[in-house]
Amino acid sequence: MAATETLTAERILEATEEVLRRHGPAKATVVDVARALGVSHGSVYRHFRTKAALREAVTKRWLDRTSEALDGIAGDGSRDPETRLRDWLAALFTAKRRKAGDDPELFATYSVLAGEQVGAVAEHIDELTEQLTRIVSDGAAAEVFHSEDPAVSARAVFQATGRFHDPAYAGEWDRAEADADFAAAVDLLLRGLRA
Q1: pLDDT at res. 152
Q2: Residue in 62, 99, 91, 54 with CA at minimum distance from that of residue 74
Q3: CA distance linking residue 165 with residue 94, whole number of Å
Q4: Per-residue pLDDT, 59
Q5: Please, are residues 16 and 58 in contact by the beta-carbon 8 Å criterion?
Q6: Per-residue model confidence (pLDDT) at position 184
Q7: What is the distance, to the nearest Å, from the Cα of residue 111 to the centroid of all Cα atoms in its chain?
């Protein structure tokens, strides 16, 4: 790190991501992060009190990237709710598939970290289901969807499509029939919401 560059939480998180990519979650240390930044490990601890806090922050940052990208689709009231729901589910599947395929080492690392950071993962799932709830609510208000409780319907949609976004299924995402299976699942869910 150049002497004129300010050490920020964001710079630490970027360096942590790179250290995790190189060393994996079992071997990456705060000292490695500090070394990558050219600072003392005490400087890192001023921003993140513990190694666990640093790991939680980097996990949350990774999950937030997906949430933020999907929020634009969920909030786009200029498009009909059915299209938004299809696009939102497709974007989630694409994002998860891309993360798993483009950088499998980092994806495996984050899968380990996500297993450690149950709170961050639960918060992420809550954010995603809240986005789905907005779409389903808009669909119910427009009488495109039938849902007595949009939050319950949104959670059901999220759970029913888990095969296409839960990292436990990452090994199936590149199978030849994955796209057809995804399209069939979304069609079925939309028929159910329109009933």
Answers
A1: 97
A2: 91
A3: 9
A4: 81
A5: yes
A6: 98
A7: 11
Regions in the chain scoring below 50 on pLDDT: 2-4
DSSP the chain: --TTSPP-HHHHHHHHHHHHHHHHHHH--HHHHHHHHTS-HHHHHHHSSSHHHHHHHHHHHHHHHHHHHHHHHHT-TTS-HHHHHHHHHHHHHHHHHHHHHH-HHHHHHHHHHHHH-HHHHHHHHHHHHHHHHHHHHHHHHTTSS--S-HHHHHHHHHHHTGGGT-GGGGGGTTSTTHHHHHHHHHHHHHHHHH-
| Residue 154 near residue 138, CB atoms below 8 Å | no
Residues 34-80 pLDDT 10s:
999 999 989 999 999 988 888 888 888 888 888 998 999 999 989 99
* CB atoms closer than 10 angstroms to residue 111: 15
Per-residue burial over 152-172, b = 16 or more CB atoms within 10 Å of its CB, e = otherwise: ebbbbbbeebeebbebeebee
